[in-house]
C-alpha cells in the first residue's frame, strides 16, 4: 500500500471492516476478486477516490452512496451478482470509464446519460434488450461495447454521439440495421456480427465518413448496397461471410 493506494484484491475478504474508514483520502481502491456480498454506505466518504475496482465477486447490489464519489474516474463493476445498476451512478460527474460487463443486467439506468465526461462504456455480456434514449447525450463517448446482449434496437438519439469511434454489437438481436450510426462523423469501427439483420438500407455515398472497419459476418444478407462498395473504395475493411456476398 502507498499513501494513496490500497490494494486488497484477491485477499478472500468477506466484509469491509469499519476501520477502513480511516483511509478516506485514498485515490485508488482495489477490492476485486474477493467474496464480498454487500458494501457499506460509508464507501461514499472516499471523496478523493479516482479508481474503484469491485469486479469478480458475489456482490448482490451496489450502494447508492457510490454516487457521492464526485472525483471517481474509473469504475470496474464486472462479473458480479447484480441485476441492476443504481441510478446514483449518473451523479459521477468525473467518470471517464465504466465497466459493468458479464452481469445479469436487464436494464441500463437512464441516469448514465448525464455522464458528460464518459469516454468508454462497457456493458457486454448482460441481458439488455434496449438502451435509454438519454445515452445519445454522452457527448464525450468514444467507445461503446455492447456484445452479447439481446438488444433489439438502438436509440435514434445515437446519431448525436459525435465523438464515438468504436461501437461493438456482436451477438445481439438487432433486426434492423442502425442507420443512425451512418451520420456519425468520427466512427471508425462498427461490429454487427451475429445479429438478425437480413437487409441493409439504402444509404447515400456520404454515409460513415470516417469508417475504417465494418464487420457484417454471420448476417444472412440478401444483397449488398452500393454504399458498402463505396466504403471499400475508401479503403474501409468490410468483412462478410459467403452468404452475405450474394
Automatic annotation (TrEMBL):
InterPro entries: Leu-rich_rpt (IPR001611), Leu-rich_rpt_4 (IPR025875), Leu-rich_rpt_typical-subtyp (IPR003591), LRR_dom_sf (IPR032675), LRR_domain-containing (IPR050216), LRR_R13L4/SHOC2-like (IPR055414)
Disease resistance R13L4/SHOC-2-like LRR domain mapped to chain residues: 4-124
Keywords, sorted A to Z: Leucine-rich repeat, Repeat
Protein name: Leucine-rich repeat domain-containing protein
